[in-house]
Amino acid sequence: MELFLMTITTGIMVGGIYALVALGWVLIYKCSGVLNLAMGEMTLIGAYVSLSFYSMGIPFLLALLFSLIIGLILGILTERIFLDKLIGEPVLTVIMVTVGLSFFFKGMVELIWGTDTRVFTPPVFTIEPIHIGPVIVGQAYLWSFVAAIILLIVFVCFFKYTRWGLAMQATADDEMAALSIGVSARFVYAAAWAIAFMAAGVGGTLLGNINGLNISVGYLGLLVLPAVVLGGLNSVPGAIVGGITIGILQNLAGAYLDKYFPGGIKEIAPFVFMAIFLLFKPHGLWGWERIERV
Amino acid sequence: MSTTWLPCGTYHQNYAQDHAWWQTKFIKGKMILLFIILFVVIPLFADSYLLSVCNQVGYTILGALGVQLLIGFCGQITLGHAAFIAVGAYTSTLLILEFPWPKLMMDYGIAYPFSIIIAAVVAGIWSVLFGLPSARVKGFYLILTTMAAQFITVDFIITQYVSQIGGRGQAFSLPPGTVKVGPWVIDSDLKVYLMMLVLVIFCVVIMVNLLRSRVGRAWVAIRDNDISAEVMGINVVKYKLLAFFVAGFIGGIAGAFWISNIAAISPEHFPWFWSLWLVGVILIGGVGSIHGTIFGSIFMVVVMEALQLAVMPLADIYPKLLMDFLFIKEAVFGLAICMFMMFEPNGLAYRWWQIKNYFNLWPFSY
Hints:
The complex is a heterodimer.
Chain A: H1 2-32, H2 39-55, H3 60-83, H4 91-113, E1 130-132, E2 135-137, H5 139-161, H6 163-173, H7 175-180, H8 185-211, H9 220-231, H10 236-257, H11 265-280
Antiparallel strand pairs in A: 1-2
Helix pairs in contact in A: 1-5, 1-8, 1-9, 1-10, 2-3, 2-4, 2-8, 2-9, 3-8, 5-6, 5-8, 6-8, 9-10, 9-11, 10-11
Chain B: H1 15-18, H2 25-45, H3 48-73, H4 81-98, H5 103-107, H6 111-131, H7 140-161, E1 172-173, E2 180-181, E3 184-185, H8 189-211, H9 214-224, H10 226-231, H11 236-258, E4 264-265, H12 272-285, H13 290-315, H14 320-343, H15 347-360
Antiparallel strand pairs in B: 1-4, 2-3
Helix pairs in contact in B: 3-8, 3-11, 3-12, 3-13, 4-6, 4-7, 4-11, 6-11, 9-11, 12-13, 12-14, 12-15, 13-14, 13-15
């Protein structure tokens, strides 16, 4: 029972980070219809940038802020240079451009920062675990979860209550109508990419704090896909629920199935789950079902 | 795009002529010249470096043909084709190493050709298994299931279980002399090259013949609009699964071929990167064209080799470059895909078609 509770708690904590990155993914898809496979490399860039600032001796929160700013700039640049020309192109074209981008980013990250595992030194969070009733949680997990939840709330509030966020919602709902009432679609696309880049960067930084940072943190970008499929591709609450579910599922699989399938079941379980889930409910829990006509 | 340009005054009079392989004397001469170059000139005059580059091109063509079939002709986007190549390679290797072949079959070198066929069929069936979701989902969701195929097959089943067979742990090494076709032991680049030519021609012929038959027309109809295809009486699920089978079959041949060229196989030979690479190859070559597959493979391999040749002299000055070459390669590949998608979305095959078009009635094209 204790193991079960521990696993669930850890799953929820890690799932918070997944939810943050999944939110960025869903924003891009909702606003501009781009299915982004470069998310993992975006997390890498953000994480390495904040690590570089942090190891220069800048306080952690400030380093995180800098990485947010750089994420903002890079997001706008990426959208302007690569994605702007591709709006309305076939799905395969857009997906492969994001795949190309992911290789480009990955190659650049490896060139600049190398492939060795790096850790945040001195550690940002103390190793001393916290006891919540019978459950023991590492501080890194707990604070990462808190940070992820705070950012999630900030982004959702931005989306719901500010003028820019409302413009983004309008574009996501009906681009033509939004254009006719004076919303600049190009601005919205750039904003979506900037937010996604920032969210990915924070997610990568937090995950890098837990396990150390190397190229495999980019795997997070693939884990986002089961999360968004579970929630539905264009649903913001779906992304959050999906992210946390995938986190729990992954940890449960690691704790209980590892006996029967030794080895990497923890990494594979989300994808197996996704493949089966797709067979039964291809539009996710809250996604829009699109009716096709000839 | 697929129509052949005929000289003035020559017309097709029936359907068979319209679909014939070599429609004019000029094309026949051109193709015979190509075959002479491939089968005689290159083996006689090429050194072993050039041959090894050719072998890489051939392997890429074999791998990309299946991707081209699925994406270019049937419209089923796949990002997990390396899984099926891996299944082919591992089936063939295991059959050679572990299966108790009769001594006679080993001596006459039937084991390896036989294992290629079995590997191809197994890979085809494995591919159908992961193509099953295509009956219900399409587009982006299908991409996700094919990705799942890659991770489940290569990163989990092969790495964790298949690699343990025979207690070898990570890699299967093939002792020299085990890969044997008939009386010839495949041990030099030249022999691999000749085998590659035969297999590539075999697979291309299968593909082209399928595409000009009822099956191929059904695939193209599904690609263009699957709902109207269904309305026209095509069994969509059956033909989609058939496309997955043929793609997996060719992928299996590719994998089984490649073990003749490498001394040991391990899961690292079939990463997700390789799946994406193959999709990149057909995008650069041109989607929906057999020419495109071949042009794309040649382009990608030659560009990467040229890049390597350009970087190597610099490595004396900056030794770090040697280590970083893999990353440069990745970045260049990514940028190349982006650039092609933005500026030449129809690929190299379209450019080739335009050139032929221009010279068709040259110099009086009006």
